[in-house]
Amino acid sequence: MSETSSREPSVTGSSGADGDLALARRGDRAAYDRLVRPLLPELHAHCYRMLAASHDADDALQDALVKTWRGLGDFEGRSTLRTWLYTVATRSCIDLARARGRRAMPVDLGPASARAVVDDAPSGDVAWLGPYVGHARQGTTSPAARYEEREAVELAFVAALQHLPGNQRAALLLFDVLGFPAEEIATMMRTTTTSVNSALQRARATVTRRVPDPSQQATARRIGDRQLNAVVQRFTTALEHRDTDALIDLVTEDVTWAMPPMPHWYAGLTAVGDFAAQVPMGNCGSWRTLPTSVNAQPAVACYLRPDGAPSHGAWAITVLTLRDARISGITSFLGVEHFTALDLPAELPPIGQ
Fold this sequence. Notes:
This protein has 13 helices and seven strands. It is α+β, with helices and mostly antiparallel strands. It folds into two domains: about 15-100 and about 145-210, Butyryl-CoA Dehydrogenase, subunit A, domain 3, CATH 1.20.140; about 215-350, Roll (Nuclear Transport Factor 2, Chain: A), CATH 3.10.450.
């Protein structure tokens, strides 16, 4: 991709950026930081899509930034700095994915459970897909990109990517999400344009089979903010009141509920209703909630206060997947670390205090 391409904003297109690049090549770290800082959100989102875990994305992005800093003296400017950063970051992601393996959701481990597993325990030997708490930015206005930036971090899309080999994953993201041309991707991935096009064809077939249509962004636009917020409010009210019937009234007949790192998951009204009644609505304790957003989808921060505890502690970030104005998927990511990433408090006082 040339530096004058309309599909890619040039980082080196202004005199200020050119000056910073010259300074950075001479070892000025502050100038380098000024150059890369505007690109960090979109690069981190790319690494998350590749790796499906924010902490892995952190590692890959840090590795890429160190490598580009150390190699800046050899950067010849035949592409934009942004292209070079994406090249290095993508290779770092492929290497990390190869070393750590693909990340999974409970649905990948086996069939749904027909009844609630009340003594379910976290599975520590599974590399779990994690939530994305950032704000995706791509920096491209290319009409050729198939996915909107928010669609490209939705849970279903990120989970589908994990079923692709690293080269297919990279080709799909670089072409369909970020708008790089196949010829440029071939250079970035040290392969041929024919190989890139072949990888794209296979990747699209896999993703199409696994990602439902319409996207969550299209669903949200169709039902509108008011109705979307009403669904979230009804869900939180049902949880806080421990009202299983109210929750079941909100969901589709084929609703699913998963709680990584718990390995069991549930599908359908009967199984989800049984799980809801026996676990979150059962003897867990009382709940408080805060609305939030994760993976560009509506989400609820769920705080649990077991009987006798002085406060509600961070328990799970629950992401809601909608079909029309009903909930078709509930994914509860357990762990206080997700609250920290969202700048949410680790505990809440009981209602009325």
